[in-house]
Design brief:
- The mean pLDDT is 93.
- The protein has one domain: Rossmann fold (3-Layer(aba) Sandwich).
- The chain is mainly beta.
- The termini are far apart.
- A hairpin with a 5-residue loop joins strand 4 and strand 5.
- 10% of the residues lie in helices and 44% in strands.
- It is built from one helix and five strands.
Length: 99
């Protein structure tokens, strides 16, 4: 379920920790990333078919993937100048197998 964020995160940076999944290969954890959003994934209704792959330093879900299908998503902006390793994240995404 998508809900309103407790606070707006437009043009702000946060430290993002990840679980080392394919999207985050060869990235430090945590890493600095740009955020531009007013909505978040509600943790209490998070479905079991999805896995949390990244979280912000304030506890928001920042990355997820489907456990069965080749679907991934991030809440932060890898293309932002505020995201230090954004190009690496995008390269990792393009290298993901299509399944």
């Amino acid at each position: 379920k998508i809900i309103r964020a407790p606070r707006l995160m437009h043009g702000k940076s946060s430290m993002i920790s990840h679980n080392g999944s394919a999207l985050f290969v060869d990235l430090a954890t945590p890493f600095e990333s740009g955020r531009y959003h007013s909505l978040v994934v509600e943790r209490s209704s998070f479905p079991s078919c999805l896995e949390i792959t990244a979280e912000s330093d304030d506890g928001e879900i920042m990355g997820l993937r489907h456990r069965e299908f080749p679907l991934q998503g991030v809440q932060f902006h890898p293309e932002s100048v505020l995201t230090r390793d954004g190009k690496k994240i995008l390269a990792n995404f393009l290298a993901l197998p299509p399944h």
